[in-house]
Amino acid sequence: MIRVQLDAMRRLVTAIFGRAGCPADEAERIAYYLTTANLTGHDSHGVIRVPRYVDWLEQGYVLAGKQVATVLDGGSLLVLDGQHGFGQSVGPEACALGCERARSNGVAVVALRNAGHLGRIGDFAEMAIADGLVSLHFVNVFGSLLVAPFGGKERRFSTNPIAIGVPTGDDRPFVLDMATALVAEGKVLVASQGGKPVPKGALVSAAGELSDDPAELYGDLSGGAYPDPRRGPGAMRAFGDHKGSGLALACDLLGGALSGSGITRKLEGRVHNGMFSIYVDPRRLDTERTFAADVMDYVEWIRGCAPIDTQAGVLIPGDKERQTRAERTAEGLPLTETTWSAILQTARRVGLDEAGIGALTA
Ligand code: NAD
Question: For a Cys staple, 234 with which of 14, 205, 292, 297, CB 3.0–4.6 Å?
Answer without folding.
Answer: 205
